[in-house]
Amino acid sequence: MVPDTEVYRVLKWAGGRVPLEILDKVRIEVDTAPTSMTIVECRPPGDAHRAGSDWMRSPIARLRYTQARRTWALYRRDRNQKFHLYELIWSGRVCLRVARRDRRRPNGDLLGVTSSH
Fold first, then answer.
1. Distance of alpha carbon 19 from alpha carbon 54, whole angstroms
2. Domain containing 22: what range?
3. Are the beta carbons of 2 and 91 closer than 8 angstroms?
4. Do the domain assignments include residue 114?
5. Quick check: is 15 in a domain?
6. How far apart are CA 32 and CA 20, in angstroms?
């Protein structure tokens, strides 16, 4: 089971990702499951005829928790909508490390983990 403190940390991170002035165009949500959290980018329907319908949801990344080891693994989504282990980061306390780096590097790509140079 994903610890409540980690769920709270990721929800807080997601809530601060999008500036208030563009919340009508994009938002970041977190879908929680017993052993994982999926970070999802949401956008309103582009077609004026669909106004009021559900926002389009596109998973960006998944954090998977292993309770026995108390470790995290970060997965990225490819263009074919499949998740792959993101091996450029150590898998320990990923939630905390991603949140800390994100504050220092607002222009980083995948969750602020790497530089976008």
1. 21
2. 4-107
3. no
4. no
5. yes
6. 24
